[in-house]
Specification:
The complex is a heterodimer of chains A (118) and B (112). With 118 residues, chain A is mostly beta strands. Chain A is built from no helices and 11 strands. Classes of the chains: A mainly beta (118), B mainly beta (112). Chains A and B meet through strand 5 and strand 10 of A and strand 5 and strand 10 of B.
Chain lengths: 118, 112
């Protein structure tokens, strides 16, 4: 199966600092990568869709200047939470897909990054 | 997801069969996925339906009726390790057709 890694798996930071989360597809090239956020006992909420070499598409209500996404290659996307605040504390999950149609669209999820902002 | 409905919680007995239902708005439908998520972990893929009917994979089966906007996940011979949240996700409901919209998940508890 396709493997997606995330780093770090957890991070604690002070309010006002920035945190970068990496998402890598280890054994396949990802046409598209997705970034989700999940609060306790809630479902996954899509934050943005990222295609290699182009600007990310953000969901309504997600601040693109606060959540910077860079998709530099077909195997790496990064999410930077800038000037983090306690309300940004959440479980951030990335996923990657090989294509856009049929089973190629299947999203493979990374293990997630738990961010705690003090 | 505001357009997808699942029961919040279900409880079942080890060895039994449980059916988890999912309903969704039919406009823009382009495929339905079921994922399993244990607490604190990322979701793992269980099944994919794009045509009507039943897809069987070991102890897990998933059914889809596109005209009714309805799917279910059937788990047989329940094991304690099946205790998890089960997420129904539909492709193409909102905006472009290249996104998944997740339901709120059904928390399944398997008891002895």
């Amino acid at each position: 199966g396709a493997v997606v890694s995330q780093h770090p798996s957890w991070v604690i930071c002070k309010s006002g600092t920035s945190v970068k989360i990496e998402c890598r597809s280890l054994d396949f090239q990802a046409t598209t990568m997705f970034w989700y956020r999940q609060f306790p006992k809630q479902s996954l909420m899509l934050m943005a869709t990222s295609n290699e070499g182009s600007k990310a598409t953000y969901e309504q209500g997600v601040e693109k200047d606060k959540f910077l996404i860079n998709h530099a290659s077909l195997t790496l996307s990064t999410l930077t939470v800038t000037s983090a605040h306690p309300e940004d504390s959440s479980f951030y999950i990335c996923s990657a897909s090989r294509g856009t149609s049929g089973r190629a669209f299947e999203q493979f999820f990374g293990p997630g990054t738990r961010l705690t902002v003090l | 997801g505001q357009n997808i409905d699942q029961p919040t919680e279900m409880t079942a007995t080890e060895g039994a069969i449980v059916q988890i239902n999912c309903t969704y708005q039919t406009s823009g439908f382009n495929g339905l996925f079921w994922y399993q998520q244990h607490a604190g972990e990322a979701p793992t893929f269980l099944s994919y339906n794009v045509l009507d009917g039943l897809e069987e994979k070991g102890r897990f089966s998933s059914f889809l009726s596109r005209s009714k906007g309805y799917s279910y996940l059937l788990l047989k011979e329940l094991q304690m390790k099946d205790s998890a949240s089960y997420l129904c996700a539909v492709k193409g409901l909102t905006g472009g057709g290249n996104k998944l919209t997740f339901g709120t998940g059904t928390q399944l508890k398997v008891e002895l």
